[in-house]
Amino acid sequence: MSKKTETPMTDDTIKAETVKSTAAQTTGKVVEGAREFVRRSAATAKERSDDMFDTTTKFNNGLEGALTKAAKGYLSILGGIAAATHDNFNRALTTVEKLANANSVSDAVRIQADYVRENTTANLAIVREAADTVRETATDGYSMVRENVVSAW
Fold first, then answer.
1. Which long-range contacts (CB under 8 A, 24 or more apart) does 107-111 make?
2. Which among 78, 64, 70 has a CA at the least distance from the CA of 140?
3. pLDDT per residue over 28-65, tens digit each?
4. Measured distance between the N- and C-terminal CA atoms of the chain, rounded to whole angstroms
5. How many CB atoms lie within 10 A of CB 144?
6. How far apart are CA 69 and CA 10, in angstroms?
7. Cα 1 from Cα 94, distance rounded (Å)
8. CB atoms closer than 10 angstroms to residue 151
9. What is the DSSP code (8-state) at residue 25?
C-alpha cells in the first residue's frame, strides 16, 4: 500500500488552492450564465415563432375573406352575363314576332329601331352594374388585404 504524503501548507500552496477555488466558482458562474442565456434565447425564439404564427393566421384569414368576396363578385358577374344573354335572346325573339306582324316597311323599321334602342339601354345598364360589382369587389378586396398586411406587420 502506498502512503499519501501531504504537502505542507505554504503561502504558495494556499494561493494555488485559492486560485483553483476561484476558478471553479467563476467557471460555474459562466456555465450557469450560458445556460440562462440559452433558456432566454429559446423562450424568445418560441415567443417570436408564436407571434409569427398568429400573424400569418390572421393574414391568411383576411386573404381568404378577400378571395371569397372576389369569387362571389365573379359569380355575380357570371350570373349577370347569363341573365343578360337570356334577356337579349328573349328581346330578339319578341322583335322577330313583332316584325312578322309588321304591316309595312316603315312599321318594320320602327320595330327594329325600338329593338336596338331597348337592347342598347338594357345592355348599358348591365355593363354599368357589372362595372360597379367589379369596382366594389376590387376595392373591398384591396382594403381587406391592406388591413391584414398592416396588422400583420
1. none
2. 70
3. 788 888 889 999 999 999 999 998 898 888 888 888 88
4. 75
5. 20
6. 88
7. 126
8. 11
9. H
Length of the chain: 153
| CA pair distance 153, 145, nearest whole angstrom | 12
Write down the residue that cell numbers 316597311 correspond to: 105
Residue with cell 357589372: 130
Q: Nine-digit cell at 79? A: 350570373
DSSP state of 153: -
- Interval 90-132: pLDDT, tens: 999 999 999 999 999 999 999 999 999 999 999 999 899 889 9
User: C-alpha angle 15/21/26, rounded to 5°?
Assistant: 120
DSSP string, 77-118: HHHHHHHHHHHHHHHHHHHHHHHHT--SHHHHHHHHHHHHHH
Angle formed by the axes of helices 11-100 and 105-152, nearest 10°: 170
Residue pair 123/84 in contact by the 8 Å Cβ criterion: yes
Other beta carbons within 10 Å of 137: 19
